[in-house]
UniProtKB/TrEMBL annotation:
This is Solute carrier organic anion transporter family member. Residues 480-535 form the Kazal-like domain. It comes from the Eukaryota. It catalyses: L-thyroxine sulfate(out) = L-thyroxine sulfate(in); 3,3',5'-triiodo-L-thyronine(out) = 3,3',5'-triiodo-L-thyronine(in); L-thyroxine(out) = L-thyroxine(in). The chain crosses the membrane at residues 40-59, 80-104, 110-132, 220-250, 270-294, 365-383, 403-423, 435-455, 560-587, 599-622, 651-674. Belongs to the organo anion transporter (TC 2.A.60) family. Residues 45-672 form the Major facilitator superfamily (MFS) profile domain. Pfam families: Kazal_2 (PF07648), OATP (PF03137). It is a multi-pass membrane protein.
Amino acid sequence: MEISSKENTHFFSNNTILPVDRSSFKSESSASKEKQSCCGGIKIFLGALSFVYFAKALSGSYLKSTITQIERRFDIPSSLVGVIDGSFEIGNLLIIILVSYFGAKLHRPRIIGAGCLIMSAGTFLIAMPQFFMGRYRYERFPSTINSTVSISPCLQDKSQTPFSALEKSHVKINAGCEKEAGSSMWIYVLLGNLLRGIGETPIQPLGITYIDDYAVEENAALYIGCVQTVAIIGPIFGFLLGSLCAKLYVDIGFVDLDSIMITHKDAQWVGAWWLGYLIAGAISVLAGIPFWFLPKHLPKPESRKDSSTSSEQSKFITEDNKEQHKSYQQQVKIAEMAKGKSLEFFPSLLNFLPSLKNLFGNPVYILYLCASIIQFNSLIGMVTYKPKYIEQQYGQTSSKTNFVIGLINIPAVAFGIFSGGLIMKKFRINVLGAAKLSLGSSFFGYLLLLSLFAMGCENSEVAGLTVSYHGTKWTTDYEQALFSECNSGCLCSKNDWDPICGENGVTYISACLAGCQASNGSGKNTVFFNCSCVGTLESPSRRSSAVVGPCQKGNECPKMFLYFLVVSVITSYTLSVGGTPGYILLLRCIKPHLKSFALGIYTLAIRVLAGIPAPVYFGVAIDTTCLKWGSKRCGGRGACRLYDSSALRYVYLGLTLVLGTVSIFFSVAVLWVLRKRFSPQDETLSANGERGACGTKSRKDNFVNSDHLIQTTYWPEKETRL
């Protein structure tokens, strides 16, 4: 400790030798060391938490990129894939209350480390079915398989098929039926994603509050911003990893790739979806290791040692109530020493219902909550099935689709969120301005989305489904149209999906339905000849040839896809600009002591009413646009092979726009209520940064009674900042 000059004069005037105060130097040295250890410890925690955020964002986005791969691999419809996608939110909700309340009382870093292990276990579990359900089987006629036996695609007589080949085919089907239980392996994917949700739960509430507790106050916001920035990078790498794995065949390393007769452009192609989950799981394990070596508590900064509450919290405790707050704090400490921490729960429980009533009595909060729920339904459904939409609408491969989303759309979203915050800071926008900016962002974003209706591709020309065998378009019953005079002499199945492309540019469901009599070559290089249904406009009766695989979409489709990308990027940016202003609006429109509780209710509502149901009913709606369903080996409907492009466009974009429009009406209602309650004096104060007014007529209303002040401190508010 320093000695005053007056004391120095007194000591020297008495001719006494001033001893060196080693304890003071020691205390100063220990204080500096403590400060360094504090800063070093929080920075290590910050780095570890950033890596965890990256890991969880990567695995979550990778799941989105593998939606179509999982659908084809397990032969399940889109609605069931939606249930799998929503299971993450269900797992998160199962323990969020327990983690939020009891998390701060335990070793937070180790709980986060345990969460990482659970998250990695769930990620590994998702990939496990690949190793237990056998090799992937796609539909191919025996003539396209590498074989010395030549079989006519059009089986006019079963005697044309050698007995050994026919018997071998029946044996394979029976073997497939014996392993039909493998089609239920998607349950492991659902359970793995559920486990991922459970493991991810403690990362955000406990990680952010740990930083908020032990970081220097002026640095806390910067640290949290760094974590959120790193989290945005995760989805970019997740979709790029999905793009890479989609190019690799599902059974890579288990089969001879030269024997594979389909390419990544085929509707039956399944990429190495499981490989990315193994990589993501390993990253999650590595991300959790540092947390097992971090302390339960870090030395608190000097600015926080003298107060039991943060400065933000202290702002909400008025001078008149500080003494009462202190006495209550002492009572609780005595109760904890006598009976543990069991009594801490009851004050919170008693104030729960009044707080809930107070919160739901705020019209701005309720209206904004409704607007957010509906808008998130729109956005979650749109993002979940965007890869499928691009693949089916524009004929793009899964690999290219994931690459485009990861490299173009995700950065646009990140830049939009950053721009929204920058606009708020640059122009010092108050709460009314934030509501206007959020509304304007949604309005123009969905207006741009409306233009995508004009940027679609026509249906692929598939004989018997979208066009007749004579090349004319129709809208009759599709199943009845699969057979025609040209293939009436063939023994064909309408359940097969082994598309070939005729030289007339029309796709045929199978070589048999195309009436092909002979073939040459094997595997991907197979060419079919004497196809009675493949005719040209110049000579419809002439028998022509066809090659393996579907025909490409029309010449205008690549151009439309380019337009779609441009509008999609601008739309993603525009909608994201309103994210930060909307969040500020939410925080400023509730009483200070209810902020954490309001955020918890908000997050809970979004997850229960948007995160879980949106992928399911979007999937059900998309399933209604299917033209050709695949069939399982032992009967039953499999995954969809071909969608009606026009119907898919109207259902996917229409459902997104309808929900978005409804949310805009609620946002307009929010703005209307704010205008009624917003006075010019409030606007001036808010612009000067002294106070944000929202739905309050006086400052005194923010501090209704001391019971709410007690609740602020002893509710686990920091742990419920979701």
